[in-house]
Amino acid sequence: MKQRIITAIIAGAIFLPIVFYGNELLTIATYILATIGLHELLRMRKQSLRSVPGLLSVFMLWVFLLPAEQTAWLEDTLFSKMELVFLIVLLFLTYTVITKNKVTFDDVSFSILSTLYVGIGFYFLIVTREEGLYFILYSLFIIWTTDSGAYFIGKAYGKRKLWPEISPNKTVEGSIGGVVCAIITAIVFFLVYPAITDNLVIYVIGTIVLSVFGQIGDLVESALKRYYNVKDSGDILPGHGGILDRFDSLLFVLPLLNFILI
């Protein structure tokens, strides 16, 4: 626990000022975090970033993460973002032929889906910050209070397992407690500064959806680790694991925040 707290303080002291500043600094940090996250995911399947599929995955990821102003430049000079992604997919499939199926369709499918999973989530970190600092802080507090509420309420009152095949320690009571804590946090945000909507009912419903899907994001990461028989996605954050272990909920919450509330 002590190691987790020390790591959380140091990571927060680095990450939060970058989020507050935003702009190019956040974009650079997002590229770094997303690339590490993709590396962690590919490593679960024993794929290397230094391989041809790994390099194609990184290229696709970096294309996905391009902010709007760079995307406009790309479309004016070469291809649209989606056209470039489609070309990369064709290169992936061509590589299965070149290697005579040593790299299989399953391998490239995993690489492509991994890139979409990481790329879309982290792309919306950039997009959400452009909408305003409030939205990032709202998302982070919803995730933190959901996680904390689920942990402490689950510890105190949890009896029924939520999904033991995926995450044996999570309970139904803890999950509901996490959502309740997120609602309380959201109401505080609404009373202090109702930036998303002036309708409290919509605000609360949106928060419930985000809290639930934040937990699903956590379970998705747990399912991946259990399937590939790894304890943590990485070891870059002592006491916490890897980048995906810390950002798994955010990868689900940020896109949905933009779809349903912003």
UniProtKB/TrEMBL annotation:
Q: Name one GO molecular function term.
A: phosphatidate cytidylyltransferase activity
Q: What is its EC number?
A: 2.7.7.41
Q: Could you tell me what reaction this enzyme catalyses? A: a 1,2-diacyl-sn-glycero-3-phosphate + CTP + H(+) = a CDP-1,2-diacyl-sn-glycerol + diphosphate
Q: Which Pfam families match?
A: CTP_transf_1
Where, by residue number, does the polypeptide cross the bilayer? 6-36, 48-66, 78-98, 110-127, 133-153, 174-194, 200-220
Question: Where does the protein end up?
Answer: Cell membrane
Instruction: Extract the InterPro entries matched here.
Output: PC_trans
PROSITE patterns to which the protein is assigned, alphabetical: CDS
Q: Which GO terms describe its cellular component?
A: plasma membrane
Its pathway, per UniProt, is: Lipid metabolism; Phospholipid metabolism; CDP-diacylglycerol biosynthesis; CDP-diacylglycerol from sn-glycerol 3-phosphate: step 3/3
Q: Does the keyword Kinase apply?
A: no
Protein topology in the membrane? Multi-pass membrane protein
**What keywords tag this UniProt record?**
Cell membrane, Lipid biosynthesis, Lipid metabolism, Membrane, Nucleotidyltransferase, Phospholipid biosynthesis, Phospholipid metabolism, Transferase, Transmembrane, Transmembrane helix
Q: Which GO terms describe its biological process?
A: CDP-diacylglycerol biosynthetic process
Q: Family membership, please give it.
A: Belongs to the CDS family.
Record-linked PANTHER family: PHOSPHATIDATE CYTIDYLYLTRANSFERASE
Q: What protein name applies here?
A: Phosphatidate cytidylyltransferase
Protein's organism: Bacillus oleivorans
Identify the taxonomic lineage of the organism of origin. Bacteria, Bacillati, Bacillota, Bacilli, Bacillales
